[in-house]
Amino acid sequence: MGAAMFIQDARGKFNANETLDMLHTYPITTLCAPPTVYRMLVLDEPIAHLKTHPPKALRHCVGAGEPLNPEVIRMWEQHTGLTIRDGYGQTETVLLCANFPSLEVKPGSMGKPSPGFDVSVIDHNGQELPPHKEGDIAVRIKPERPKWMFQEYWHNPEATAASIRGDWYITGDRAYKDEDGYLWFVGRADDVIISAGYRIGPFEVESALKEHPAIAESAVIASPDAMRGEIVKAYVILAPGYQPTPQLASELQEHVKRVTAPYKYPREIEFVDTLPKTISGKIRRIALREMERQKKAGS
Question: What is the fold of 1-83?
């Protein structure tokens, strides 16, 4: 048996209404897209278009590339009746965990480990951590390495050795497990913000911002600070109808304090029209961090 694959030609710029038209016109049953696409599909104008151009045959929605904010999952389900099933994997590992159809979806979670993988959260000594303790996402590779995992980094034994801690392959990402065994993404190890001794995951702050109606998309990074070492900074794209003002910035800061914790709010907010992204739609936080470093070095 075979299946047709539809690939949208965005011509350099994604258009949410064109995607909805394609889903409305053709018998597409599964939509796999990065979070940026889903975030744009739940803005006011595409939602209005969706009401008159509902998907013709859509049954499954999958998020890929980076974590998807719970608010986006809620809004998409509200307007389509379909749940976006998020997952997590790497080029080195393929799909490590997911919200499989047999599982109850916990919005914001990466789901549970894929069959054939022993995925856990470990500390710097290679010991598995209890629920709700943040650590490194790791895959057990001893005594037997999963057959569908990579074997080594080509001609780079140093990188290969650095990715192994005892019996585990270290993904370079941070997460925690809950009491039901679901994995919750915190951030890339180098994306986690350490401000005045507090460890702050950018994804939690971005998800809190997305719950505010003024936010279309955001990227949260560490910005150098003489007093705290690093502070939380948010680059924000506003939803249509909102204007960048100091009053709105203060409102967003108070909103994040209420939703997360007082120490996690973005002390700096910069309103922007676009965010740097990879060809697959992932936000390039490393580019934003470098931009911040250069700004602070020159000030």
Answer: Rossmann fold (3.40.50)
Taking only the tens place, the pLDDT of each residue in 254-297 is 999 999 999 999 999 999 999 999 887 889 999 999 999 898 88
Containing H/E element for 175? Answer: strand 168-177
pLDDT given for residue 14 in this prediction: 86
Q: Kindly give, in sequence order, each residue whose CB lies less than 8 Å from that of residue 145, ignoring residues fewer than 6 positions away.
A: 151
Residue 64's pLDDT is what?
A: 87
Helix axes 16-25, 44-52, angle to 10 degrees: 20
Q: How many whole angstroms from its chain centre is CA 239?
A: 19
Q: How far is CA 129 from the centre of its chain?
A: 22
Q: Given pLDDT bands bounded at 50, 70 and 90, which one contains residue 2?
A: confident
Per domain, the residue ranges of the chain are 1-83, 107-182, 193-298
Element (H, E) at 171: strand 168-177
Residue 65 has what pLDDT? 84
Q: Note whether 92 and 58 are within 8 A (CB).
A: no
Within 13 Å, how many C-alpha atoms sit on residue 260's CB side?
24
Q: What is the pLDDT at residue 299? A: 66
What pLDDT sits at residue 192?
92
Question: What topology is assigned to 107-182 in CATH?
Answer: Luciferase; domain 3 (2.30.38)
* 146: preceding bond cis by omega (within 30 degrees): no
DSSP per-residue string spanning 25-59: HS---EEEE-HHHHHHHTSHHHHHHHHHS--SS--
Q: Could you tell me the CATH superfamily of domain 193-298? A: ANL, C-terminal domain (3.30.300.30)
Helix axes 70-80, 202-210, angle to 10 degrees: 40
